[in-house]
Amino acid sequence: MAFEGKVVWVTGASSGIGEALSRQLLGRGAYVILSGRQTDALERVAANAPQRALVLPFEATNWDALPDAVDKAWNWRGAVDILVNNAGISQRSLAIDTQLPVYRELMEVDYLAPVALTQLVLPRMIERSLGHIAAVSSVAGKVGVPLRTGYCGAKHAVVGYFSALRAEIESAYGIPVTVIVPGSVKTRIAINAVEGNGERRGRSDPNIERGIDVNIAAGNILEGIAERKKEVVVADGIEGVALQIMRDHPEKLYEMTSQEGARLANMRNNAGPGTALDPDHSRLVQP
């Protein structure tokens, strides 16, 4: 088995894709370091194979705490073979209604946090000339869509950093870098998304509810990591089509996103600023 006996560190392991990845990794014989903010949830995941799980809760943007977390993770089994940067939050607000602190939070959680953790783990992997780094971006890290200006910015940055990192370390040190590009996966990501005022949205999206089963998504992601793929796309329907159109006919994709932006602007103007938009508003790209 590709993961049997490997030490895998998963952030955002208490729910969603991170939880599903962790459960499957434990089922495949891996030693899994479970990180996130919800200790009780992490312990429930660890209960699947407690002898091969380390619960290591921390706040991803607590920069001062990261070096100690890395020490604990590395010292548990003497190394980290695979780092999966998964923790993140999404957004549901038009730019005109979004306050600057929301952009800061999205960039810190979705971009700077995985960069900071990777920067601390990277020298240790390079010293061994052994390891594998993965990061969860999004279809929104490839396509700019309405209601996601901050999220798209952060996830585009994730693609940029980890793609550049791959160029620096894969051939030089034999350390592959995998960028994961999910579309709609049935999780709580929309419920936990931030709105323009910084509050959590508190409700899901129909697209998310109709999304790919999280366990199927996790299985596809692990298959891609096992095959050392540079990019793992987990998207179907309109999102898969959007990626293809972006490659082949970018102007056509712009027309599609622009039409959606105009529809949302009309909704906002008719309802008044600050009014919650139709829960089925995002017809193009999730999460």
TrEMBL record:
Q: Which SMART domains match?
A: PKS_KR (SM00822)
Bias-annotated ranges (Basic and acidic residues): 278-287
> InterPro entries annotated for this entry?
KR_dom, NAD(P)-bd_dom_sf, Sc_DH/Rdtase_CS, SDR_fam
Every copy of the Ketoreductase domain together lies at 6-186
| Keyword terms | Oxidoreductase
Q: Give positions of region: Disordered.
A: 266-287
> A Pfam family for this UniProt protein?
adh_short
- Family membership noted in the UniProt record: Belongs to the short-chain dehydrogenases/reductases (SDR) family.
Q: What is this protein called?
A: SDR family NAD(P)-dependent oxidoreductase
